[in-house]
Automatic annotation (TrEMBL):
The lineage of its organism: Bacteria, Bacillati, Bacillota, Bacilli, Lactobacillales. Keywords: DNA-binding, Transcription, Transcription regulation. Pfam families: DeoRC (PF00455), HTH_DeoR (PF08220). Coiled coil: none annotated. This is HTH deoR-type domain-containing protein. It comes from Vagococcus lutrae LBD1.
């Protein structure tokens, strides 16, 4: 249990870049003494350093959104290309912020007429050249590390938009823990979207599977299609068959 909590705390610190001990105490619902012991172990990892009142990621160890985008870029583009085939003219869709979902618009015809809801800066910028795409932006605070906007109230989504298709990203994915994310503010948007959209499409390369992070924003059985480069074993295939989930595996 302690080892798993330490892994989750590391994920949380990597996402936030700097956290206070008080924030860790409240987030993980353990005592301050427990957090201090956990942090003492965590800072033996060369990615982290103790600072006054908290813990930070060492500057040379930060992995930027741009660098994460470059990693497995060809795979991410193939997944996005396959996802784009699911979009039809006049759709009202949601595109999540992520290093794979950001490529979806690269594979749409320039004259397509549709509506996009997003919290992704990259999607907003790419949509500029599409004269017939209408874009609605969610969120009221910009998060530089993920180039996304966060901070919403539920009625921004549930009372206004009938989303036909949601193209979702995840930090980690598993049968037991579903679709996961390590940031609370992004979690809120993702959860509301999944609860609202008629169809959920998960874009995730094989590196995301069988990992765990802090927050589950949706169970895996809420997904309609999973677009990936992963070859699934019988455990996953049986689960997909039982839950009527369609896996789409791209050729690399």
């Amino acid at each position: 249990m302690k080892a798993k909590r330490n892994d989750l705390i590391k994920e949380y610190i990597l996402e936030k870049e700097h956290v206070t001990l008080k924030e860790l105490e409240e987030t993980f619902n353990v005592s301050m003494n427990t957090i201090r012991r956990d942090v003492a172990k965590i800072i033996t990892d060369p990615r982290f350093e103790k600072v006054y009142g908290g813990v930070s990621v060492k500057k040379n160890k930060l992995i930027s959104f741009e660098n994460r985008s470059i990693k497995n870029k060809e795979v991410k583009q193939k997944i996005a290309e396959e996802a784009a085939k699911l979009i039809q003219p006049h759709d009202l869709i949601y595109i999540d912020s992520g290093t794979t979902t950001k490529y979806i618009l690269d594979y749409l015809p320039k004259d397509i007429e549709m509506t996009i809801i997003t919290n992704s800066l990259d999607i907003v910028l790419k949509a500029e050249v599409f004269e017939k795409i209408q874009v609605f932006l969610l969120g009221n605070m910009f998060k530089r590390s993920t180039r996304s906007f966060v901070g919403i109230t539920p009625d921004q989504i549930t009372n206004k938009y009938n989303i036909s298709k949601a193209f979702m990203a995840a930090t980690a994915v598993s049968i037991d823990n579903g679709m996961m994310n390590s940031d609370l503010m992004e979690y809120e948007i993702k959860k509301h979207i999944v609860d609202k959209a008629a169809n959920i499409y998960l874009l995730a390369d094989k590196s995301k599977f069988e990992k765990s992070t802090l927050l589950t924003y949706a169970s895996l059985d809420q997904v309609n299609k999973i677009i990936t480069d992963k070859d699934f074993d019988t455990t996953y295939l049986d689960f997909f068959n039982d839950k009527q989930i369609e896996p789409i595996t791209v050729d690399i």
